[in-house]
Design goal:
Blueprint (H helix, E strand, L loop, with lengths): L5 H27 L3 H14 L1 E4 L4 H7 L2 H28 L2 H10 L3 H13 L5 H14 L4 E8 L4 E7 L4 H12 L7 E7 L4 E4 L7 H4 L9 E6 L5 H4 L2 H4 L5 H5 L3 H12 L10 E7 L6 E8 L3 E4 L12 E5 L4 E5 L2 H4 L7 E5 L11 E4 L3 H16 L1 H14 L22
Parallel strand pairs: 1-2, 2-6
Antiparallel strand pairs: 2-3, 4-5, 4-6, 5-11, 7-8, 7-13, 8-9, 9-10, 11-12, 12-13
């Protein structure tokens, strides 16, 4: 097999980046090429699809599964949105913009029914669930905020039905589940997505908006969302020595006391920029389209993962970018030793969230052991999310221990916009 030169390899990396950008622009481009009449029809169809269900066969089924108080909350929210739209109509008309008038009109219910609908919501409090369901179904089709009715599976096989919209973060949904399940508010609780076809799973980060990753699922997807306890969710903060003293013997890092851990956190997370673990080592890379894995020496940087080409050194000038983190998420895998003949079952995957099936644009990496997998997966999370990850941890600790003042980096830590550095 002919080996690619460094320049050719860099071109391939550029192609991967171009493909990632292309995923986000395809929909915009296709709509811009449509005639305006066709585009109006498509927009109307998309509007009816803005609210759908996850874990159900259709929207009707998911609405019927909502608990009474959740359905009441949905009705109240939709009613307030309808009232807001009615009040804002004169403003749109005064502006004289044709596009704005169309937007306002679409936000309102038909004129002949608007008063009746509003009155019905205010006066018919003893409505049956069937009546509420029918009215909610109509109002959802008019809603301007994307809403999902989601079935969240529990570890004991039961499930909870939630209504979430595009403004809600994972942290907020976790709080909803704490109230519904009456479980403890441990920092380990997570929302996770699973993809049976690819045999992967990923824990959502607490700052993510839940609707965004779920909207990447295909309509007939068998993906599922779980509410589970993941003890390694914030291991980089509860045991920072594992990641920032990984070159030392395990005996040394395991004996570190709590005060030393706090000093490590202050050193690496307390400044204006976050310091990424200086992780490097040999991983096995799966060749595209083949069940063949070859060892390469990889190096973690704040911007992505790099590898050392054959015959080159580990100096920065020789490193070649393997993947940038902006367009990729990291996923844990299951049974890849059997499925792809991986050297071990300690593998992880890097892919664009919109890719839901087998693709040549997916990156597969395999580690020698579980500890190495722990180091790479969580160090990549640190590099990708920066100080936002630490802020998530602080919020989780505050929720778990509201009366305790958590020790950590001084208040000078900057916002999540600060960039990680190496």
């Amino acid at each position: 097999m002919m080996l690619l030169s460094v320049k050719e390899t860099e071109k391939m990396d550029d192609i991967d980046a171009m493909f990632s950008d292309l995923l986000g622009e395809m929909n915009t481009l296709s709509q811009s090429l449509m005639p305006s009449a066709d585009r109006t029809e498509v927009d109307s169809a998309l509007q009816t699809e803005r609210t759908f269900s996850i874990g159900f066969t259709d929207l009707n089924e998911s609405l019927k599964e909502l608990e009474d108080h959740d359905l009441d909350a949905l009705m109240a929210d939709l009613a307030s949105r309808s009232t807001t739209s009615e009040c804002s109509l004169p403003t749109y008309q005064q502006a004289g913009s044709c596009a704005d008038n169309e937007m306002a009109a679409s936000a309102l219910p038909p004129p002949s029914n608007s008063v009746e609908s509003s009155g019905g919501l205010q006066t018919s409090e003893p409505q049956t669930k069937s009546d509420k369901f029918k009215l909610a179904l109509e109002k959802l089709k008019e809603a301007k905020v994307r809403k999902l009715i989601v079935k969240v599976l529990m570890s004991d096989g039961s499930s909870k039905i939630l209504m979430v919209d595009e403004r809600q973060t994972v942290r907020e949904v976790l709080d909803m589940l704490f109230e519904k399940t009456h479980c403890d508010c441990s920092i380990d609780w997570s929302l996770c997505e699973t993809n049976p076809e690819l045999q992967i799973e990923r824990g959502f980060e607490d700052h993510e908006h839940v609707v965004e990753p779920l909207s990447s699922w295909t309509r007939l997807s068998e993906n599922k969302m779980y509410f589970v306890s993941r003890p390694q969710k914030y291991v980089m903060f509860t045991n920072p020595q594992v990641f920032y003293m990984w070159k030392k013997k395990k005996e040394c890092s395991s004996k570190i006391n709590e005060q030393a851990k706090q000093l490590l956190l202050q050193e690496h997370f307390g400044g204006s920029t976050l310091i990424v673990p200086d992780l490097e080592g040999t991983l096995y890379l799966k060749e595209d389209g083949k069940k063949v894995w070859k060892p390469r020496y990889f190096v973690l940087r704040a911007s992505g993962i790099y590898y050392v080409p054959k015959g080159k050194t580990k100096s920065s000038s020789d490193l070649v970018c393997f993947v940038h983190f902006e367009k990729f998420n990291i996923y844990n895998t299951k049974h890849f030793k059997l499925k792809y003949r991986a050297p071990t079952d300690f593998c992880f995957m890097l892919k664009h969230p919109c890719i839901q099936n087998e693709s040549d644009y997916i990156k597969f990496l395999c580690c020698d052991d579980e500890h190495t997998l722990l180091l790479w997966v969580n160090s990549i999370r640190i590099a990708k999310y920066g100080t936002t990850l630490y802020e998530n941890y602080q919020a989780a600790m505050k929720r778990a221990h509201p009366s305790a003042s958590h020790k950590g980096p001084p208040p000078s830590i900057e916002s999540s916009n600060s960039r990680p550095r190496k």
